[in-house]
Amino acid sequence: MAVTDEAIEKIKGMIVSGALRPGDRLPKESELAADLGLSRNSLREAVRALSLIRILDVRQGDGTYVTSLDPQLLLEAMSFVVDFHRDDTVLEFLAVRRILEPAATAMAALRISEQQLDALTAQLDKLGDAPSVEDLVACDLEFHRGIVHSSGNSVLCSLLDGLSGPTTRARIWRGLTQEDAVGRTLREHRAILAALRDRDAEAARSWATVHIASVEQWLRSTL
Amino acid sequence: MAVTDEAIEKIKGMIVSGALRPGDRLPKESELAADLGLSRNSLREAVRALSLIRILDVRQGDGTYVTSLDPQLLLEAMSFVVDFHRDDTVLEFLAVRRILEPAATAMAALRISEQQLDALTAQLDKLGDAPSVEDLVACDLEFHRGIVHSSGNSVLCSLLDGLSGPTTRARIWRGLTQEDAVGRTLREHRAILAALRDRDAEAARSWATVHIASVEQWLRSTL
DNA sequence: GTCGCTTAAGACCTCCGACGTATCACGTCA
DNA sequence: TGACGTGATACGTCGGAGGTCTTAAGCGAC
């Protein structure tokens, strides 16, 4: 195994074992390199790799720190990976989202605060009846993000955030080509919000399923 | 932005845009460094980072290649990230798995082959009535992996693979401390398999839910 | 003609030393 | 007391020198 890979494993080990805790500062490059028995250049490769996936936070002139290791932060790195997926796997991503999002919406129905409900309502009101496709899709992302956040599960929240990325382009495309896709989306958002207000988890779940399934169905018929 | 980060973005761009396709070989380090306008050392940091998340495959003595970019391969990198999560988030991971796994099992009920069913049966038979906890957990992972694979969704499959890792330790712990956890797991596996044989998606979903919920419940009461 | 070994070229691996740049802390001065 | 300047510190970047591994061409024996 290459010395750099060893260094990655050792640093990972230090964090997993608790020797390095979130927020801790690592020894400076030259010292850590000496400790781990490799050159500063090779160590930097290891640190850079761990930095890309948000394990380490490198600040020039200051030092290198362990990040908070929050699920939200770590899974955020997933969206970087997701960007590489080819268009032909969008349907598989959407299928997973179709499983997770209704469940998350149902969970949110039981936990969401009145304040959050009002915020979502205001958001939909602000958008108006005939928004641009770009505005709608941006609002769509924000709407679902807000709901999923209220599910209370940060892993679920981050996961859905990552999965939603690849379908964004598809949704824009749909908005531009399918008749009444905008109006339909707006109506479905209102329905989901109403179900949340009623604390009706099953209705919320069903509307979320319908909402995603309509995109899925359209995409399947188009590809 | 640092030159290394620029290089990461540029290489990513080349892949996403299609200039570099899966399996393609990159120019050699010295050439690519010159093309991108940075030193070979800094370029290596970029390549190493992309290599860690399985975007690039570096082979000493040969060259650097773009991986297949299969969802399975890319999400495999997620398990590396998941390893960093602290024990207090295991419940959140388990909650997500509780959503995905029943759905995957239900999907599998409609698609799984007779051959695969026989393989799963043979696997359970081979384990016997009183396996060691380690064998049981390993078999447990393999059993679920086989079922999820039959769901036909590789993104779902890889995702569950990544999520199952963190709970492995918990399951071993449970097997060692909870009375009849082994017998219960074996019975539930048989029940899931029977539902799959009957092509009964709803029964399969329910048994999978019960199976995971029992772990979740035990874990919640223990923490 | 085929198989197996030797050899050389190509590409990545590791290291070293030097210099550039950003940040923070301390001391100075108004 | 507060703002500013300065130095120490740590990361950022670079060029070059060997080292190691893979591959394939070259060559001889069967």
UniProtKB/TrEMBL annotation, chains A, B:
Q: Which residues form the signal peptide?
A: none
SMART domains per the record? Answer: FCD (SM00895), HTH_GNTR (SM00345)
The highest taxon in the source lineage is Bacteria
Chain segments annotated as coiled-coil in the UniProt record: none
Give the InterPro entries listed for this entry. Answer: GntR_C, TF_FadR/GntR_C, Tscrpt_reg_HTH_GntR, WH-like_DNA-bd_sf, WH_DNA-bd_sf
Give all residue intervals belonging to the HTH gntR-type domain. 1-69
Q: Which UniProt keywords apply?
A: DNA-binding, Transcription, Transcription regulation
Any Pfam family hit: FCD
Q: What is this protein called?
A: FadR family transcriptional regulator
Organism, scientific name: Streptomyces koelreuteriae
